[in-house]
Amino acid sequence: MSDRSDRAVDRVRATQASVPAGKSAPGEIERFLGAAKQLAPLATGQAGRLVFALDATMSRQPTWDLACSLQARMFEVAAGSGGLAVQLVYFRGMMECRASGWVGEPQRLTGLMSRIACEGGQTQIHRVLKHIRDEAATVPIRAFVLVGDAMEENVDALAALAGELGLRGIRGFLFQEGHDPAASAAFAMMARLTGGAHARFDVHAPASLLELLRGAAAYASGGREALQRLADASPGARGLLTAMDGGKR
Q1: Which of 17, 44, 127, 172 has the most CB atoms around its CB within 10 Å?
Q2: Closest CA to 142 of 87, 95, 60
Q3: So where are the chain's domains?
Q4: Rounded to an integer, what distance in angstroms lies between the CA atom of residue 249 and that of residue 239?
Q5: Of 45 and 140, which is predicted with more confidence?
């Protein structure tokens, strides 16, 4: 999914460039991303890197809006562990899958997310995993988050890619809305193969997703030690640790 291997995915630089407010109209996102590509890469120093991947197919708009409102809290919890750099990846529509540049401020990520509208389509999780694998060849990535509610792909292909990420030490945090059996099985499998965690959340209870995102951000910025510190005060973080330990905590 990088520029080297998948031209269908555009890598872009998230920015606060001036564009019309509101949801994306035809051509608006392409113009915005085209201008953003001209910017220099964000200097992230030694900040931990987290790929933040979201399903942006039509049913996901409420969850997309929720994630947009909560993402700033990921940066807050990571501040005490060296900071956080986030790359947004999303898929929607007819084989559209895009990745932003690395951003270190929640305002820049909000500026990009608020201009993207969900569109109907099928899941493209394999493209997300391929992108993370290829991106990790050039920058260190400690973890990724995938937020979604469905899985419509070849499970064996996902398993192979998840296994590669696990061997690279990239932990996957798979956060599922709802109880779709296919998604549950696939998300749990990817979490297990990456050494990460699978957890469910309720879009009508924002605190449930917030705790999960904060836990993943803590791990991305400071590893298991940072997640352990957060777990002392966060049931959601404790649940992630338990899942990472195979339910043995």
Answers
A1: 172
A2: 87
A3: 11-244
A4: 9
A5: 140
